[in-house]
Amino acid sequence: MALRNILRDGEKSLLKTSRAVTDYNARLHQLIDDMRETLIEAEGLGLAAPQVGVLRRVVIVVDTSREGTVEDQMIELVNPEIIARSGEQVGHEGCLSVPEVYGIVERPQLVKIRAFDRNGEMFEIYGEGLTARAFCHEIDHLNGVLFTSLATRFLTADELEELRKTERP
Ligand code: CO
Fold first, then answer.
1. Catalytic status, residue 76
2. Are 102 and 156 in contact (CB under 8 A)?
3. Per residue in 93-151, pLDDT tens?
4. Residue 136, SS3 per DSSP
5. 26 CA distance to ligand 1 centroid (A)?
6. Segments making up each domain of the chain, as ranges
7. Could you tell me the distance, in angstroms and rounded to a whole number, from the CA of residue 145 to the centre of ligand 1?
8. Span from the CA of 13 to the centroid of ligand 1 (angstroms)
9. Looking at domain 12-167, which of 3.40.50.300, 3.60.140.10, 3.90.45.10, 3.40.50.1000 is its CATH number?
10. Which residue of the set 138, 159, 161, 167 is catalytic?
């Protein structure tokens, strides 16, 4: 495994649409393993392949409502699609590619995702609350969309300070 460099806002590839994965091969497994390691190192809640410069439809989301370590909480999604959504939540959101910036973004409260695992097996999964937000945020990356283009406003310095005291970004 190897750490990959996380691209920062301003890199054009963050605004591009990623292509579907067609081969569930060793190269894909390497990418996913590297993304896992990179995400743990960065202490984020999610990472999309285009953030490490690979324009393929692969994301990892950390579901903090699950038991266990961060490794246990990671959900690997290949070619994910949101197939149902309901409710709404309004809250803050950040991104490893846009450090130190948090914005208020409206998202569905509940989403149902259809995706493939690293071996090409299809599965469906629900995400609620923070996890629903993470699914939406990461899948947006695959379509070249950053949360900064969806935010209704950005947190102030005071609000950021409060946030730092209460939670991991
Ligand atoms: Co992001």
1. no
2. no
3. 999 999 999 999 999 999 999 999 999 999 999 999 999 999 999 999 999 999 999 99
4. helix
5. 25
6. 12-167
7. 9
8. 13
9. 3.90.45.10
10. 138
Compute, in angstroms, the gap from residue 25 CA to the centroid of ligand 1: 25
Each residue's pLDDT tens digit, 54-73:
999 999 999 999 999 999 99
Q: How many residues does the chain have?
A: 169
CA-to-CA distance for 75 and 60, rounded, in angstroms? 6
HEC assignment per residue over the chain: CCCCCCCCCCCHHHHCCCECCCCCCHHHHHHHHHHHHHHHHHCCCEEEHHHHCCCECEEEEECCCCCCCHHHHEEEEEEEEEEEEECCEEEEEEECCEEEEEEEEEECCEEEEEEECCCCCEEEEEEECHHHHHHHHHHHHHCCCCHHHCCCEECCHHHHHHHHHHCCC
Q: Which distant-in-sequence residues (6+ apart) come within 8 Å of 46 by Cβ? A: 39, 59, 60, 61, 62, 134, 137, 138
Q: 119 CA to middle of ligand 1, Å?
A: 25
Phi, psi of 118 (to 5 degrees): -65, -15
